[in-house]
Amino acid sequence: MEDRELLLLDGPHDGGAEEDFTPNSFPTGDKTCLNLVYLAALVAAIGGLLFGYDVGIITGAKLQVAHDLGLTCAQEELLVALMPLGALSASLVADPCLSGIGRKTTIQLTAFIFTLGALLMAFSHSLLQLLIGRFIVGFAVSLSAMAECLYISEISAPSNRGLLISLNELGITVGLLLAYITNFIFMSVSGGWRYMFGLSTVLSVVQFGALLLLPPTPHFL
Fold first, then answer.
1. How far, rounded to the nearest angstrom, does the alpha carbon of residue 182 sit from its chain's CA centroid?
2. Measured over all CA atoms, what is the biggest interatomic distance in the chain, rounded to whole angstroms?
């Protein structure tokens, strides 16, 4: 399917009122395009899952990390704080990335960066490695959140834009739930914090691979 087919989702081009345009009005071929939009929105919303997961996972992981690495209270606080600090730093490069390389490519880039950060944490043997990993994943999920909302809004029609963008918020909530479930499962496992951090790479790899099959947004094109 040509990337330009997504332009069909911008609304009717015959001068009709925008409010008369609904998903049910798509011809058969356009319904296939609409399904692609739903799929693309779900893939983009995986970033929300990653955001929620990494915000929640530290609550259980830090207890094991502190025990295994002998961290002080101040070092535990620093470990928690590095993720939002990384998220804040993402705002400095958001415009060059989103406007320069595009929304889709930015999401792919953040998925790749997130995978590196999560693996670094999972295989860390020092506090410094953990701090760098937390900063990296914070940077990745923040930039991804900005790119996802733009990507979803630009591939959707006015009739379903609010629904599709809300998938990202739903993903954050589900990610928090998954984090607490993972904490519960691995809390009593020796070195369980490595699994807690490492499991998130499954989602980021899936997102990166799936985006290879999806088009960029019509607005960016």
1. 18
2. 68
